[in-house]
Amino acid sequence: MEPRRKTPPLQRLAALGVATLAMAALRAQYDTLQDAPGLGAFQDRLWRMAGFFTILTNALVAVHMLAVALHWRIGASRAAGLLLSIAAVGIVYHLLLARLWNPQGLAWWADLGLHTGVPLAYGLWWLALAPKEVAARDLPGWLIWPAVYCAYALIRGALTGFWPYPFLDAGALGWPRVTLNIAGRLAAFALGGWAILTLARRFQRVGTGTSPR
Fold first, then answer.
1. CA–CA separation, 34 vs 66, rounded Å?
2. Residue 3 per-residue DSSP state
3. Smallest Cα–Cα separation from 56: which of 82, 95, 36?
């Protein structure tokens, strides 16, 4: 993030809306855990939530959007990297994970916000208001957060036996299979990053008055 400067009011207001949605979804998810066995304490619920890429990435969106609302400028590369991660939250969930459970009540609202609402809201914010001056050299940096999360989840799972996602469950799948799963998902992130890079370049060409090649 860059130091405070004058930020356009629409950019700040829209960022505040995205942040509010993300925080509401995170709070709803926290509240759904209050009756779960062994998760009655505040710290236990937070620790469980902190195991999921979905939760942590939504929290990153909330923090960055709050910062923008407070006049901090988000760099183009960071904005695009955040888009890649939160888009992956929505895409992976709806393609691979949604069929594995059927949330009800408040859990349904939390699920909708975390996996659909926030990815769409941040995506629209990026399309309409985010800086887009990115280059191919930015792409490796966008993979750092997914890679760090995978390492964290595997270490945590090996120590506690809690595996947040089926494709990371080394206890059931074995380490070689999980390693391949991670490599495949990082490759998918890289492809998604190229798609974002291509889209951002088109916006840059439109902004400079040149035609896409």
1. 27
2. E
3. 82
Rounded-to-integer distance, Cα 5 and Cα 26, Å: 29
Quick: pLDDT tens for 85-139: 999 999 988 988 778 788 889 999 999 999 999 999 999 999 999 999 999 999 9
Q: Under 8 Å CB-to-CB from 89, ≥6 apart: which residues? A: 53, 54, 57, 58, 114, 115, 118, 119
Instruction: Give CA–CA dist 155/170, Å, rounded.
Output: 10
Closest among 27, 199, 182 to 118, alpha carbons compared: 27
**51-82: pLDDT as tens digits:** 999 999 999 999 999 999 998 989 999 999 99
Task: Tell me if residue 111 falls in helix, strand or coil.
Answer: helix
Question: Which residues are within 8 A (CB) of 181 and not within 5 positions of it... i.e. 6 or more apart?
Answer: 167, 168, 173
Dist. CA 125–CA 119, nearest whole Å: 10
Phi, psi of 105 (to 5 degrees): 60, -130
Contact 115, 187 (CB under 8 A): no
Q: What is the mean pLDDT of the chain?
A: 90
Contact partners, residue 163, CB within 8 Å, separation at least 6:
153, 157, 169, 170, 171, 172
3-state secondary structure of 190: helix
What is the C-alpha to C-alpha distance for residues 14 and 30, in angstroms, rounded to an integer?
25
* Distance separating alpha carbons of residues 146 and 167, to the nearest angstrom: 14
Cα–Cα distance measured from residue 110 to residue 112, given in angstroms and rounded to the nearest whole number: 5
State the Cα–Cα distance between residues 4 and 6, nearest whole angstrom.
7
